[in-house]
Amino acid sequence: MMKKATAEEAVAVTSVFWDIKMFPVPPGFDARRVGPCIKRLLEKYGYFGPLTINAVGLLTDVHDDILGALSSSGINTYYGPFGASADIMWLFYEWTQKNPPPTNILAICDRTGLRPTREFNIFGPFSYSSPRYFRQEDAINWISLILAESEAVGEDTCSETGEYFCSICYRYDHPGQGFESFKRHLSSLEHTRKKLALLHPRREMFEEDPTIVRFQPEASFFVFGFNIDF
């Protein structure tokens, strides 16, 4: 069961760090309703302060329709190449530097590295299972939770658009640039090269730019009495 908010926590800023791969949008579920479901869940436990929801992970593994729907409902999307756990730790550190306590952090992710502190109220949406069964049981709990909350959530009326961030290129797209702009960036040569350099540094050292044509020395071969130049 989720932690009830104290009087101080009830009005404090709340940020949600959501591992979108480990806890995916349920199949067939309208992704625009995820944000309202999370908001309603928080309000049930007394959290009414300003809310930011961050979906983190290898976004190229998530269908464009889902990402576009999440963005249109005000959820921020963060592309991270290392797996959401490592990327969330980095985002968590950056966020805590900009948001002094008291603050609330709802961790819909592997909370191994997110230790509760006196300064920051860190909690999960449900009691997580043991690490051995973490992915399977908790993913089921997440889907059950979202489906249950959605029954009491009306039509999405959010007019805000989420932000987009690529941690490889350190590129920030404000909402006005649109999801299509961010999508083009993730498939761009610039992003691909930086991703290769980061994840496969030795491979990048020997890769050549496909636009460069290297000089080929002339060669001659004698074939059946004919001199052929190449």
Automatic annotation (TrEMBL):
Entry-linked Pfam families: NYN
Domain of life, per lineage: Eukaryota
Occurrences of domain NYN (ranges): 14-106
InterPro entries to which the protein is assigned, alphabetical: Marf1, NYN
Name of protein: NYN domain-containing protein
Biological source species: Cardamine amara subsp. amara
